Amino acid sequence: MENQKLWGGRFSASAAEILDEFNASLPFDKKLYKQDILGSQTHAKMLAKCGILTQSEAEKICEGLEQVKEEMERGEFEFILSDEDIHMAVEKRLTQIIGEVGKKLHTARSRNDQVALDFRLFVLDSNDNLRVLLLELIDTLLEIAKQHTQTMLPGMTHLQHAQPVNFGFLMCAYVSMFARDFERLESSFRRNNFCPLGAAALAGTPYATDRFFTAQTLGFIAPTLNATDSVSDRDFALDFLYDCSMIAMHISRLAEELVLWSSYEFKFITLSDAYSTGSSIMPQKKNPDVPELLRGKSGRVYGNLLSLLVVMKGLPLAYNKDTQEDKEGVFDSFETLSIALRILKDTLQTMTINTDSMLKACKKGHLSATDLADFLVQTCGIPFREAHHITGKAVAFAESLDKDLSDLSAEELCSVDSAIPQEAHKSLDLEASMNSRNSYGGTSTQATKTQIESLEAWLQLAKKALQDSKEPQNAK
């Protein structure tokens, strides 16, 4: 039986059916059809520019590839497992459409540099898309922050009430996290924006090609430097998966807050019915399934990073078939985060913020205790350790009266210790406590507004940088 593989000239027997099933990447790498066709069209143009193909041959190839793309987009393309991968599927169909000229397309390249290009283009496009979604989420968080620079709630350490903060201040904390995520993606994009096409199998090509033309046409900064590294490198995918893992971690942390804040124990927020679910047995339940799923999705994203790290850890130069396992985890992480970032933004935009419950919670846990200790240090000259001890006595006294420290009268406070003056009572006011923390980065209303202004300025620069980074891609 004649071997139908495009690479089958050296083989006298057909591939085993189970080998086709085990070896093929087509079921998942067909996602790369746009990148594959774009790369092939650019390669044909480069071959014509260098005189390796005639202009008419290159045009015929490009037109045929466009027809293949249209067939795929209309759902008319027949994917056959024995074609192995998207590259062979496209080339085979191209040859069926335009004849023998189609067989010239693969001149001066290999599937090794072809897949490196396709996958890198996908990762860079995905990087762009996630940065857009991150900026939309940051926009939402900043809008919430601007509305709540005076909305007090307990700031916590160890999940215990610590000091009064405002809700806008906490939103700024998450904006800072997601801003770092954006910058990580931005850095990864710049570091990996180099074109591997033209590296061929591993050692370059004897044809007089122009890799700089290819790179420029595809919107890259330049060609990759070393051919062997070009076909075996998957750092760009690992960078992307690490960046995804960091985003997933920050999403998970915010999701955990939403789960806690929406519980009866907190009642700080009420999630929209549109982003909640019910119980099949308990009719009163309103479950925070969206934030719970967001919290859980981090595990699969971490797993995708670890999986590729393990695949790559012992591979010798240059290309090895092991790297066929690089794509599904990247596809999954990108798709997971794409919907996660969108639904998190929607959940935040539609939730109700219960300011009264937040303020009520500030009356628990003696949030102004540190302020009393600081007052004794600053006004009375008492060493901090002694002031800490006196304040501890005041807390114990308040608890004996079943009161919060902030609810003690001036007389009750002064009865705790002779070192406490009458004017110390003003340090227990919760709003004053919050606004006293006016240091740069602090939680006072004014300091929070300063953070918001800084983050909004950053956001405008980030939007411009993202637009600038995408402009070369428009040449495609």
Automatic annotation (TrEMBL):
It comes from the Bacteria. SUPFAM superfamilies: L-aspartase-like. Residues 367-435 form the Argininosuccinate lyase C-terminal domain. The keyword Nucleotide-binding does not apply. It catalyses: 2-(N(omega)-L-arginino)succinate = fumarate + L-arginine. Pathway: Amino-acid biosynthesis; L-arginine biosynthesis; L-arginine from L-ornithine and carbamoyl phosphate: step 3/3. InterPro entries: Arg_succ_lyase_C, Argininosuccinate_lyase, Fumarase/histidase_N, Fumarate_lyase_CS, Fumarate_lyase_fam, Fumarate_lyase_N, L-Aspartase-like. GO terms for molecular function: argininosuccinate lyase activity. Keywords: Amino-acid biosynthesis, Arginine biosynthesis, Cytoplasm, Lyase. Its EC number is 4.3.2.1. One of its GO terms (biological process) is L-arginine biosynthetic process via ornithine. Its main location: cytoplasm. One of its GO terms (cellular component) is cytosol. It is found in: Cytoplasm. CDD domains: Argininosuccinate_lyase. Belongs to the lyase 1 family. Argininosuccinate lyase subfamily. This is Argininosuccinate lyase. The lineage of its organism: Bacteria, Pseudomonadati, Campylobacterota, Epsilonproteobacteria, Campylobacterales. The gene is argH.
